[in-house]
Amino acid sequence: MNKPKLSVIILNYNTKELLADCLRSVKTYMDEVSMEVIVSDNASTDGGPDMIRKNFPWVKLTEGPNSGFSKGNNRAKNLVNGEMVLFLNPDTVVHKDVFLKTVRYLEEHTDVGAVTCKLVLQNGKIDKDIRRRFPTPWISFSHLILKMNKEYYYESIPENATHEVDAIQGAFFLTWKKILDKVGWFDEEYFFDGEDIDLCYQIHKAGYKLVYYPDTYITHLKGVTKGKVKKWNHKVDPKQKMKLRLAGVASMERFYRKNLWNNYPLLFSYFVILGIKLFKVVRFIKVRLTS
């Protein structure tokens, strides 16, 4: 059997129904490109792995402990046979031509290291997180504190225009396996959130562009896995919800210390870290009050 062009990696944790819908959509269009599908399961307790073995025998399944997004995705790398790797969220639904067009775009643009498509939310609006700037101190401050999002989300560029970006989202992240091997895949020091931005940063450092390519799209049921969508039948334990929300702030500190610390005066960097820790306290209180 010839090696596939594309390896699709889907990380799953207690999202059985979402995953089933995602896999059915992938199956519908998987003849667009020669591919294999790998599901990496983070110790789900909702019967997800058994469901995959029973209903989707064509899927490669690997299981392990719930050690976060980075380790969960990296767990699948030894099973990858494709030249390209697509990281795909289980809370997504694939549509026609998304595999065909994004793979073709990456093949035709040798200076591009990773590409994403348009992600459309249930309300029909674009998922803004699909195209972002790197979280420098000013960008982060204006986005998180001042709520000035235009620059962070590239809102001055039409959402139907193909353009270069700093960072794309891990929900649909297509790249070459050789690039992942070069930059070390996901940084496993991140538990949840931030690892996709960090991977984008490493791909940039390796000399490649990242591109938002909206000529095709998928649907993203965003927020379900974090327990943010009340109408969806997906329960998230309050402790798990708190863990995920605080992990996002920890990722901010990890990214700054790893990638930006030496770009600024030492005193300023300590001030930034203090600001991140204060933001973590605020988020903790907010999650407690809303849980």
Automatic annotation (TrEMBL):
List, alphabetically, the Pfam families matched: Glyco_tranf_2_3 (PF13641)
The UniProt keywords, alphabetically, are: Membrane, Transferase, Transmembrane, Transmembrane helix
**Annotated TM spans:** 261-279
Quote the Gene3D superfamilies the UniProt record gives. Answer: Spore Coat Polysaccharide Biosynthesis Protein SpsA, Chain A (3.90.550.10)
Tell me which InterPro entries the record gives.
Nucleotide-diphossugar_trans
Q: Which CDD domains match?
A: GT_2_like_c
| GO terms of molecular function | transferase activity
UniProt name for this protein: Glycosyl transferase family 2
